Amino acid sequence: MSVSRFPSGTPIALTPLEGLSMTHRVRSAFGRFLVTVAAAAVAVTFATTAATAQQTTGKIEGTVTDQQGAPIANAQVFIVGTSFGAVTDAKGYYFLNNVPVGTYTIRAQFIGYAPTEVRDARVLGGQTLTFNIKMSSSAVQVTGITVTAAANPIVPRDQVTSKSIVDQKTTSSLPVDDVRNVVALQAGVVESGAGGGVSIRGGRPGEANVYIDGTPVRSQNAGSQAITVGTNAVEEASVTTGAIGVEFGDAQAGIISYTTRSGGQKLEGWISYASDEPFGNAISTGVNRFAGSVGGPIPGVTGLRFFLSGIVQGRMAPERGFGWDQVPTYMLGGIDTTLSVVTSTGTQQVVVPRFVQASGQCDKAKNFGFECTGRRFPLNWRTTTQAQGKLSYSYGSGSSASLSFVANGDQGRNWPGTNIADPQLYGGFHNWSRLIIGNLSHSFFKSAERNLALNVNVSWAQDRGIAGALDAASEIGTRYGNSPPKADVSAAVPAETDTATVRM
Questions:
Q1: E strands of 316-380, at which residues?
Q2: Measured distance CA(249)–CA(247) in Å, rounded
Q3: How many CB atoms within 10 Å of residue 214?
Q4: How far apart are CA 267 and CA 70, in angstroms?
Q5: How far does CA 464 lie from the centroid of its chain?
Q6: What whole-number distance in Å separates Cα of residue 62 and Cα of residue 130?
Q7: Residue 491 three-state SS
Q8: Which of 95, 99, 412, 486 has the smallest C-beta neighbourhood within 10 Å, fewest atoms?
Q9: Helix (H) or strand (E) holding 183
Q10: Pairing of strands 146-149, 215-216
């Protein structure tokens, strides 16, 4: 090979063919550069999108060995009832990527060994869980299955942030009616007592990013969280209070993430009812709460599961402290008298309302037939509804898709305060939110060492609300909620009203 050197400043003459060849090479190199930049931009976009959304899946890994600790190659490891499966390599290692959050049964099987199951294996969002499996050799495969309990770690080995994770079992065992109260029990989280949300690390309510099934939920009007999930629909709730990545730059205080439940391996249902009515007016505020859920596999379709849940809660009066059953509160109780006012333009009838004691203790006979309701604050009831649904499907070799629906409703009346004498100024509110989330995790290629997959998260949300004065029909129909106080109507509204004439 010969190399020609030219002195500095020496002109180089190119033939037309040589110039065309060089131009083609330059254009080809430039084209390859553009393709590389475009591919990198697409990769960064997908990576940023996936990183911005909270992960709703986790990873399972481990080794399969015999009782002496020797690795078992080519053993089949799969999650019972799903399409997630893997084959161990020469070292007995296996892994399962993009497994939806939940509790599963992992089974390992190989010719010459009795099948072994690891039950109650908990998968955490964005974390890697290790489950090592030991198999017993058997000359003839028997129908029995060796069962072991999963040793779920308190802190996953790859967790590098200040993060608390609460699973479904813990949530369902706590005496709470709001999932926000579960989050408030974690270190660094304080209940603000306001609709804007909890306070994390001393931040103001609403400064934390909130995610449901990997998608951010934030009201476009108020900027704070506008929708939440019921306590019976939470599979996992996590709170990140420190070491937040740059992709969450708008999370000024922390990150709260909820993952909704999916159907289990068998059809299961749950129902509950709670009330404080039997405890008397000294304690009761008229709370009634109904909750129920059902979920499981859909017959005839392998890997397809569903889950439905709902909560309806009504409260006749807001929660007040000890001793309020002795504090009187008054409300309208009919017409006291009618005055005829003589003005320069004529005579005008003016109705003077009657006020009766509503809360506290009183004598019905001396209260115009009305019974006092003890601790209950009048004209201030509230009803909330929550509904969730999820359809999940696993297919292929470790691919899954899910469609979630979350709906909230909140309506009630506001205490009129200084407007107690004018029902035309009585007000109420009705707020409702809807959220639909789609998640797809498609596996293109999987081997014993690596996996290529695509994760997609899409969502649609709608927040609506109305507040203002109630019309006459709505005001009368919702004055006492569903349980009006007992009263003698003839005493509350006398058949014959006293009249008087006033001259002005």
A1: 329-343, 346-359
A2: 6
A3: 26
A4: 39
A5: 18
A6: 5
A7: helix
A8: 486
A9: helix 179-183
A10: unpaired
What is the assigned CATH class of domain 162-315+382-477? mainly beta
CA 492/CA 172 separation, integer angstroms: 46
Using DSSP's 3-state secondary structure scheme, residue 106 falls into strand
How is the chain split into domains, by residue range? 57-149, 162-315+382-477, 324-378+485-503
251 or 227, higher pLDDT: 227
What CATH class has 57-149? mainly beta
Place of tokens 């089949």: 76
Taking CA atoms, 299 is separated from 80, 154, 304, 376, 387, in Å, by 16, 36, 8, 49, 24
Other C-beta atoms lying within 10 Å of the C-beta of residue 140: 6
Of 126, 213, 262, 125, nearest to 437 by C-alpha is 213
- Residue 83 tokens, joined: 């399409």
Percent of the chain whose pLDDT exceeds 90: 31
pLDDT at position 40 over 50: no
- 3-class DSSP state of 156: coil
* Least-confidence region, from 171-175, 321-325, 335-339, 447-451: 447-451
Helix, strand, coil distribution of the chain in percent, nearest 5: 15, 45, 40
Residue pair 340/347 in contact by the 8 Å Cβ criterion: yes
DSSP for residue 137: B
> Contact at 8 Å (CB) between 98 and 400?
yes
Taking the C-alpha atoms of residue 224 and residue 54, their distance in angstroms, rounded to an integer, is 18
Of 278, 299, 307, 276, residue with least CA distance to 289: 276
* Cβ proximity of 94 and 162 under 8 Å: no
* Bridge partner list, 35: none
| Residue 114: CB atoms within 10 Å | 18
Q: What is the band of 141 on the pLDDT scale with cuts at 50, 70, 90?
A: low
Cα-Cα-Cα-Cα torsion 388, 394, 399, 403, nearest 10 degrees, comes to -20
pLDDT one-digit tens code per residue, 88-117 = 999 999 999 899 998 899 999 998 898 999
Confidence category of residue 249, pLDDT binned at 50, 70, 90? low
More confident residue, 30 or 174: 174
Q: Is residue 418 scored above 70 in pLDDT?
A: yes
**Could you tell me the strand order of the sheet in which 215-216 lies?**
162-167, 234-242, 255-260, 209-212, 215-216
Q: Is residue 116 helix, strand or coil?
A: strand
**Strand blocks (E) in 225-345:** 234-242, 255-260, 268-275, 287-297, 304-315, 329-343
Residue-wise pLDDT for 202-233, tens only, equals 777 777 788 899 888 875 555 566 788 898 99
